[in-house]
Amino acid sequence: MSDTTTRVSVVLVAYNRQDLLVEALDALAAQSRPVDEVVVLDNASDDDSARVAAEHPVGARVITLDRNTGGAGGFAAGMAAALDVPREQAPDWVWLMDDDTIPTEDALAELLRAADSYEGPVALLGSRVVWHDGRDHPMNTPRKRPRVSGELMDVADRAGARPVRSSSFVSMLVNAKAVRYHGLPIADYFIWNDDFEYSCRLLRRGTGLYVPGSVVEHRTKTFGATDADPGPRFYYEVRNKIWMITRSGSLTGPERVLYSGASVRRWVKTFLRSQNRSVLVSALLRGARDGVLRSPRPTSVVLAGLPVTSSVARIESRSR
To answer: Which DSSP category does 260 fall into?
Structure first.
């Protein structure tokens, strides 16, 4: 549905990048298909991100947290705020992005066009993500849906899209019905693998589409994939991947085996490329320990005591 009765709310998570935030909000204000609401979730920034967002002419609703909840908590909080509104204001779609995501003018229009053209329900759609020089960004490459029939490939092709098994929070358009059914991202992931787990959860039985006609720039400082040297943050990669493989319902049994092997191979590549392997070893050991011995806390617990606490609880209580 891409007509004017369809409501789209943007959830943009901001943290200490006020200059990029201005560019992202400028790009949202310039969309050929206007957005209906912009929710900026400021993750306890130390700069003027909250003020910049509040003063921007796009008219964003700014929610400021008093502690940094990471990307996972930020998206969960922002999505809950966007959806926990009176029925007449409720969005049909929630468009997710970070403050370093700069959508091109037709990015939203192309996502909605594909959703409208696809012959069946769609849980989420993702944009083509490029770096500032136009190259496809390796950090945000969606995983193709395996074993798709020729008939379904033709259906997706007619919509200008490709079926995928996962997607990135760097421009992910999510069906609000899917959020209400499956719940919010797992806030305890903090960073890394939160969008992988969430999109796989929605797409285990749902349809996800990659729409190359919808283009956004991901303005990271460097051009690289997720196996670049992460330093101490490798802890989150290890812990969260173990959580996803052992505790999430997002994967089938064969997928758990497949992604376990792929993760180990990626970790080995990361280790071999690292200039400070002792840091990675420490992060690996701690991540493995916490991934095995702990489970992620409910998102409503992680986000307790924040302005969105009641909204999170309401959204989570209604999901299956």
So the answer is: H
Contact between residue 69 and residue 43 where contact means Cβ atoms under 8 Å apart: yes
7 and 92 Cβ atoms separated by less than 8 Å: yes
CA angle 262, 267, 272 (to 5 degrees): 130
What is the per-residue DSSP string for 27-77? HHHT-SS--SEEEEEE-S-SSSHHHHHHHSTT--EEEE-SS--HHHHHHHH
Q: Are 264 and 237 in contact (CB under 8 A)?
A: no
CA 118 to mean position of chain CA atoms: 22
From the list 26, 22, 24, 65, the residue with the least C-alpha distance to 46 is 65
**Greatest distance between any 2 Cα atoms in the chain:** 55
Chain segment 51-86, per-residue pLDDT in tens: 999 999 999 999 999 999 999 999 999 999 999 999
Backbone angles phi, psi at 63, to 5 degrees: -115, 120
Q: How confident is the model at residue 1 (pLDDT cuts 50, 70, 90)?
A: very low
Phi then psi for 269, rounded to 5 degrees? -60, -40
- Section 182-192 average pLDDT: 97
Tell me the per-residue pLDDT of 206-239, one tens digit each, with 9 for 90 and over: 999 999 999 999 998 887 665 567 899 999 999 9
- Alpha-carbon distance 263 to 266, whole Å? 5
* Residue 166 near residue 200, CB atoms below 8 Å: yes
pLDDT reading at 282 higher than 70: yes
Q: What is the pTM of this model?
A: 0.94
CA gyration radius, the chain: 19
